[in-house]
Amino acid sequence: MDDVIQQLSATIREANAAGRALRIHGGGSKDFYGGPLRGEPLDVRPYRGVVEYEPTELVITARAGTPLAEVEDVLRREGQMLAFEPPHFGEHATLGGCIAAGLSGPRRMYAGAARDLVLGIRLMSGEGTDLQFGGRVMKNVAGFDVSRVIAGSLGTLGVILEASLKVLPLPQAERTVVLEQPERKALETVNRWAALPIPISATAYFDNRLHVRLSGAKAGVEAARSKLGGEAIGDDEARALWNGVREHTHPFFRSSEALWRLALPSATPPLDLPGRMLTEWSGALRWVRGDVSASTVREAAARSGGHATLFRNGDKGVGVFQPLTPAVLGLHRRLKHALDPAGLFNRGRLYPDF
After folding, report:
1. What confidence tens digit (pLDDT) does each residue in 34-85 have?
2. Which of 15, 99, 100, 205 is most solvent-facing, going by the fewest CB within 10 Å?
């Protein structure tokens, strides 16, 4: 794979000399996310494969072009998983795109976000330099953790070459129960449960029904299921439900309307917003779909101490991500300049002038 690295470096150096923008390209499954696509494609898919995996260490290292499904299959054969349950949004999703997008699925609130489970990153800078941050062991936490910053940067800081991730064992048992409750009561319920030793691994509230997934040892799951009450649904139905929420194939997401993603304190009361809503992560993630202005949804999120992202569809001219404060934007710019001084990579994917 050294020849692939050399070719990537040569292409970046040539683009740097010519002042050409580059668009880092993997499977393309998340091209809809973030700002418009600009620049010549820089294909990272040839750089693929698992570099190192030792199940007893709960760490896997793989190249960025490796299909995400392939990584998950390798882990599943050893009874393990990517704990943040990343969405694919398409069969061609790659590990590099997964980390660059930094998105997490239904299990995020209870097992950690993508950035929390990235232990190390190998990155190629905007000058074609091969860099490494972090490590391949869980105890490597010294210094400024650039690896966590790379997660969710949408390729604006460099080309992800490899990623080392913490993994977790698959649960022995899972069970999903459904309770019919008004929204306010459902939010109060899941936040009360958060303080109790209940093995919750996902929640989703929509159509006046609270769906709760329990994961863990069989005895613990069954005990919790009895304690929570509600109606248990079959395993096949449960898998379809959580996969639909994770991959946005659930009927709620199948719409051409603007879809907003609101990250809020979990105890935030119901929001008075137009459109339909689906709530995950015990109230910390609210999806809003419909005809709602950017100012309305962003003001509602800010009042609650959170932020809003235009996730899919809608007018991206209003800005995809919540505007940053001058101080935070300054930090972003300094880090961008250190890793990609000429501003080659993925121009405008995070912010128009970044």
Report:
1. 999 999 999 999 999 999 999 999 999 999 999 999 999 999 999 999 999 9
2. 15
Give pLDDT tens digits for 99-141.
Answer: 999 999 999 999 999 999 999 999 999 999 999 988 665 444 4
Q: What is the DSSP letter of 238?
A: H
Please state the three-class secondary structure of 69-121 as a single string.
HHHHHHHHHCCEECCCCCCCCCCCCEHHHHHHHCCCCCCHHHHCCCHHHEEEE
Residue with tokens 């689906």: 278
Q: Which one-letter DSSP state was computed for residue 223?
A: H
Distance CA 163, CA 63 (A): 7
Question: What tokens does 93 get?
Answer: 């999703």
Contacts of 321 (CB under 8 A, 6+ apart): 34, 307, 309, 310, 350, 351
The answer to whether the Cα torsion of 213, 216, 217, 223 is positive or negative is negative
pLDDT value, residue 136: 60
Rounding to the nearest 10 degrees, give the CA dihedral for residues 327, 331, 334, 339: -160
Beginning with the edge strand found earlier in the chain, give each strand of the sheet holding 276-280 in spatial order: 231-233, 173-180, 209-216, 200-206, 276-280, 285-289, 259-263, 307-312
* Amino acid at position 94, single letter: T
Quick one: pLDDT at residue 352? 85
> What span, in angstroms and rounded, lies between the C-alpha atoms of 272 and 287?
13
Compute the distance between CA of residue 154 and CA of residue 36 in angstroms, rounded to an integer: 12
Phi/psi region, residue 139 (left: phi>0; alpha: psi -120 to 50; beta: rest), is: alpha
CA-closest candidate to residue 265, choices 109, 113, 149, 33: 109
